[in-house]
Fold these 2 entries.
Entry 1:
Amino acid sequence: MTSVLFVCLGNICRSPLAEGILRAELVGRGAGDRIMVASAGTGSWHVGNPPDPRSVEVAMRHGIDISGQRARQVRAEDFSRFDLVLAMDGENLANLFRLAGASAATLRAEGRLRRFLDRDVPDPYYGGADGFERVHEMLKRGASALADEILGS
Ligand code: 4NP
């Protein structure tokens, strides 16, 4: 069993969408029950809240229902519970390294704590619907590559 945790700032826009997209990608490849996918935020403002309506909507447009997900904050034990912790941007990653403390260097060296994509997934919170569509596109491409990596295909 492999487990993946996506992390953004609020856990209401980017990481819940990434969670839904990767899960759907894995289910589509018949591996839905082999990989555990979750998401969390470095911040605590939105804990317990459903994803932002704009993320729910863009997911729905692409055939995925993420409305049942609820925001939670990253915890120190996430670094041992998850095989992969993937940050949406460099700022989230820096905060995660701080939170990981003594284990940060090992997690980095093993590639278990890293930025999800080779560039930042921009925070769409203060922008319009087009920003969410662009984020979806980036996450979709990244999820497909990650599924290849995890499943070794
Ligand atoms: P996310 O977007 O990190 O992709 O969930 C944000 C959501 C909320 C806030 C910032 C970013 N906020 O400042 O409340």
Note: The CA atoms of residues 107 and 113 lie 5 Å apart.
Entry 2:
Amino acid sequence: MELAHRDITYCKNVGAKRADILRNELGVRTAMDLVRQYPYKYIDRSRFYRIAELDDEDTYVQIIGEVTEWHTVGIGKAQRLSATFFDGTHQCELVWFRGVQYVKLQRGVKYLLFGKPSRFNHTYNFVHPELTPWDKVTPEMTQGLEPYYNTTEKMKRINLNSKAMRGIIADLMPEVRMGVPDTMGADILQRYRLMSLTEALLNVHFPRDMQTMQNARARLKFEELFYIQLQILRQMKRREMNAGFRMPLVGQRFHALYKCLPFDLTNAQKRVIHEIHDDLKSGKQMNRLLQGDVGSGKTLVALLCCLLAVDNGFQTCIMAPTEILANQHYETLRHFLAPLGNSVNVGLLTGSTTKKQREPLHEGLRNGEINILVGTHALLEDEVQWRNLGLVIIDEQHRFGVAQRAKLWTKSRKDNSSSAVDAPHILVMTATPIPRTLAMTLYGDLSVSIIDELPPGRKPVQTVHYQLSRRAQVYSFVRKQIEQGRQVYVVFPLIKENEKLDLQDLQNGFNELCEAFPEYRISMVHGQMKAADKDLQMQRFISGQTQILVATTVIEVGVNVPNASVMIIQNAERFGLSQLHQLRGRVGRGADQSYCLLLTRTELTKDTRKRMDIMVATNDGFRIAEADLQLRGPGDLEGTQQSGLPFDLHIANLATDGQLLTLARQAAMEILDADPLLEDERNRIYKRQLDILRIETHNWGDIS
Ligand code: ADP
Ligand code: MG
């Protein structure tokens, strides 16, 4: 029976019990699934080391030699066996803590030692090494690259360790060698110089040599990325067939606002407004991602786009992830629109909007009097019915679930059921710069606009890394800034598992600041407060009544207080890079020099130190995002799951496989350009494989 159809239960050395565990732990069902479990690393067993050559503690090595002396200490469970291993010129130590009774050592016997050395004083130690008498060493054991497989605790408990997996998979190789049906067409294999699936599977597990292993992996990575791109791009092609509301006019309100802006738009702002307008008048539904670093002026772009739609007779909405942000957008819009009098009607709908306030709002939305509705998730409530919603703008998209977006979309579809076109244009705005590879994968079905320029006159934020012990210095700096009329943020980490402790930290921090700055007023906000209290505290800071705002990351996105010039991040080691960058973006919004102080404890891990160094070195969000991806990337070799993807990557790695991704996308695009619905006979292989894989991707504009 074909590998793809054979239940793992009937594979050699598997059986019912192991099959159960494999299904539950790895989702492996068929013999082919087993063959598709790729090694996460390889150890070169063709190379023999001398003890004198050892210098790297992290890699496995093998050495030929004898055991010259050994002794046990302790009794029973606490027993420990130490032995001295001699390779003819140097010695090292072998240690066993477990299963000591099973270790049988003999003097005068040649052994093959295999294990991972660690240095202790001046000698190397091997803990629980594999020690095989030389006459038991088979040629296969020392041949080429030995594959290592991921296993779980439950698997190990029934002895399904990497070695057992290797054995099970090795037993399937003769069948693979007879040939497995390929999942990629011959033309693509040829054009992109890829191995056949058969060759790739043989060599990913038991590679002939390093180069062949890499070629095998490249083929499998290409395939993985190709199918994800094919799925994403197919979605995009389908959606491109959607008609969209036509908004050709650049009308009065747009011009009126444009004329009375207190500053010129940056070139980048102008460019993206053009890109968006091109979509709005195209007759196709827009699905666009607007990327722009914090402070790049996305809100104004959003407003101008709303006016484009309003001038064409449509309603629009701007959805923000938090109430604070929704309020702020509302205020910003009203401020900008003030000179236009009542020609634009803006509404605000959040969780705190009272029932009484809602009635006229609902009415205004139904009869079309409200042109722009700003709000939170409350926009998605069933009672919110539109007359003609034409443009949806979603700010800081990563805060929303996909399901919610879909809901908004359905709503307009239902409400415009009489109309020929039914999908509103969608603009997703994010301040989180996304590495190119991640963008292609997460938002691969969206058009992308980038605001890559800050308004003129902004001074880059200066970032300094301090140890917590230097608090006195930090305080005196803060005092000087406040004396100059500035305001200060102090942010504390808040991590869910530890919420109570964190709130305690926050409270302590607040008390400490109150003691240190008795002459100033201090606000505090955190996620556990009632929305009304939170808003009150925020408002006090925004209006300048308080000089210091102590907060958790609730202020992370969007908050705009240009007079605040200092951002202090407590326990900065507990924040990820993109979060630190977001927080830093809260300052540097006014004309004054701003500062970001990263406070950490003294002992730092290598990774934390790198994070701090990157923050100090650059303000460039894209560089930070790339560094973030690299740092969070794979631990051992690759295939580690990247957080935030709707699907698992088994072999490809977005941090390092950018080039392959570009090629895979290109290949997928070529196929779909010629055959958008994959109806062609020669593309059946792809359609079939997509059905088998069922890749889940974010679908930004459609409901699925
Ligand atoms: P973002 O949402 O992209 O982080 P905002 O829209 O909050 O940024 O804009 C930050 C600040 O810059 C706001 O005070 C805004 O009024 C101002 N701003 C926007 N565009 C310009 C411009 N072209 N020139 C000067 N200031 C601008
Ligand atoms: Mg913003």
Note: The CA atoms of residues 290 and 429 lie 5 Å apart.
